[in-house]
Structure formats: C-alpha cells, structure tokens
Structure prediction request, 169 residues.
Amino acid sequence: MTADDRTWIKVSPCASIPLREGRCVEVDGRPIAIFHTNNGFLAVENRCPHRGGPLADGIVSGTTVVCPLHAWKFDLFSGASTNHPEAPRALIVYPTCIDDGIVCIQLPEGDAPGEITGIDCEHRDRPLRWVQRRLAPTSARVGSSGSSAATALPQTERPEGKGYAPQEL
Prediction:
C-alpha cells in the first residue's frame, strides 16, 4: 500500500483549531493532538512519551509543543524531543492535509484500526490538590458587624502602593 492508496480521515474543521493552539481528537481509539501552526496543521500522538501528558494542552511555539506536565519539548515535524535528545522514543507523527476546510490525517501504514498506541511508562504524578485558605474568625470576616474589608485581610495580603481601596463584598 502506498501513501496515495491510504485513506485520509476527516477529523476537525480548520476553524475549530485557533492559530498556535492544539486540539485533541480520537481516531480509531488513538488520542491525536492536532496543532495549528504558522506552517499549517501538524498532528502527533497526544501522549507525551515521558509521563503521558496531554500534548494538545501544551504551549505551541513555532513548530514545537511543550508538554504541560514536565516541560518536555517536541518538534511537531519529526516527533523528537528537542530538550531531551536522550529520550528512547519519539512521538508518532501523522501526515495531515486540508480538504474543503477540514483537517484530515492518515494513520501509520501497517497499524490495525482500533489499536491504541501505548506509552513507555504509566502516568504516576500525584493529582493536583487545591489549597484552600482558612477563614478568618467570624468577628473579622467581611460583612460582620463593625468590620471592613481592610480588617478582613491579613496584613500580608494587602497590596501596598497607590490605588488600593478596600471594598466591601
């Protein structure tokens, strides 16, 4: 089978992927990140080979993307890591074309439909936990009798300089 014989798979309207951003689509069970760069649309697997980070959520600069989890940087043409050249594996790169305003991709030759591309190690990061501030005692809260917004904030949280006016909520 030659590249001309393979079928292009329509995946997303061009207008739905803003310039210098990425979007994730799933084709035959494969998560694929499609990026709109100044050089056109480029597609790679959506899982960072380091820890499985979602590359579609990464920062796009020129023809590279930075993984949002650990800042591994990948070239979108070759799939190789530019800041970790010792990486054992590059990203799978998918050929792209535009057909009537729709981004189309081709799956790699020889891959069975529905097969999911694996990663070298499973994701082991701890989930983010949001930090919640402890509330001030009831007598010092905004809106309680005799207090103002300025007294509700600890001294370290009051902005210094001109233009600061405490507001009641």
In short: The CA atoms of residues 66 and 73 lie 4 Å apart. The domain at 9-105 is CATH 2.102.10.10 (Rieske Iron-sulfur Protein).
